Please model this.
Amino acid sequence: MAKLTPRDQDYSKWYNEIVVEADLAQHSDVKGCMVIKPYGFAIWERMKDVLDGMFKETGHVNAYFPLFIPKSYLSKEAAHVEGFAKECAVVTHYRLKNDPDGQGVVVDPDAKLEEELIVRPTSETIIWKTYKNWIQSYRDLPLLVNQWANVVRWEMRTRLFLRTAEFLWQEGHTAHATREEAIAEAEKMLHVYADFAEGWMAMPVVRGIKSESERFAGADDTFCIEALMQDGKALQAGTSHFLGQNFAKAFDVTYATKEGTQEHVWATSWGVSTRLMGALIMTHSDDKGLVLPPKLAPIEAVIVPIQKGGEANEVVNGACQKLHDDLKAVGLRVKLDDDDTKRSGWKFAEYELKGVPVRLAIGPRDAENGTVEVARRDTGEKAFIPADQIVAHVQGLLTEMQDALFNAAKDRMTTSTREVNTWEEFTAGLEEGGFLSAHWDGTAETEERIKKETKATIRCLPLDGDTTPGTCIRTGNPSARRVLFARAY
RNA sequence: CGGGACAUGGCCCAGUUGGUAAGGCGCCUGGUUUGGGACCAGGAGAUCGCAGGUUCGAGUCCUGCUGUCCCGACCA
Model:
């Protein structure tokens, strides 16, 4: 197993290598698409399970809508069309036939669809078309539905997890009687995402609102959580959209009020995707491999027996098995790796690469002394702990590591977030990376100009940001408040 | 979609003026080993990305295509 390229040498290369070497995912034979391998999928499943629970706690239910969307649906909402018309996979035929001139199959030209089907890039249109029939009365509201699905966006340049042509995500689609209620919903889900990112992924985020040009196509407002990766680049980790009445009007979804009038409903949609896997990797991992926050690690602790041959083997195996059973009994996700075809040194390196938070080793010496060697992944520290204290020790260690990872990432984000007041400070700050809090005159022209000149984009207008007026760093025009700039993934 | 590089067993890669593919990792068998990615011996595994062309002969030269990576454009 080759060593990973160090982060300070080539961060991008390090990322690509870690995804493959830690057995998270690989490129598939289909351009831009990935195979998520069992270990990577186990992490995604944990994220999914936790998020699904959070959605249900906030009153949402799951449903499933079709993969295919009739082409005409995508023409209904003007801004949505503009944003999504391109880069979609289109189904034009429904049958293959044997190639009359050779081997294999060809598309049967007689099987052309009357109306092409689009592989969903997002499901607003088909869901709102369906909601028209579900919503008649104020009694049907609010409608709080989520779906776990795959979507396809024909991206030109892809990277495993960060941007793939097909990806897994969840998309919540809600309908409300009032504007205020819909906005409250969009904000609520933003905070659910932020709580998940910080509490489970140990990844601090900035909560904010997108500028108009970065807004979702078809939304009146896009709320977002923005995270900062180790290389100083920002990553949009989740979005929650207030859709106004745009889709209700496009698909003619109205409800009867208590007073008997007909009103268009108000909408939100919100989503996070397998991109969170990329965020997780780039927030904590190091040159030895993945570092996982304990709460999301498929394996919280791994036990490695150290065999020296002879009769001691059985004693060691017995001690390891007991340790495994004790940890499992308190609900820990623990693995005993008693594969005797791999050496212990190989296993140590392997589990470090895979980011298992705690490694426990027992050899003949430990079996004799009644101790366990405990190594933590984040700091690499090792200690010998009496076997009768090990369960409590491991539980405490996992909690401590979860907090330590968050605090380290939080410190990094805090020190990498700086106020700049001049164009010189701004351009210099960009070279160092991180978030730059700066004044902007509020126009899309200036935003575009800054993006062209520096590749920096407005990540968001932070919800708790500085709202004292000032002057724009680029034009010197009046600015209502500071916004957060960064170069982003 | 533009500019560049690359494509050789599962993976990394050598291959000279064109002459029938070498090595490492991994895999299989046996043995010795085992407290930080073991060693020795033997073995299996390749229509050289695809399709044409030049040639007595193509991994090698030419054309087209496909894919991957890097730099742009794009990224809701």
Q: What stands out?
A: Residues 341 and 347 of chain A are 10 Å apart (CA to CA). The first helix of chain A runs from residue 11 to 21.
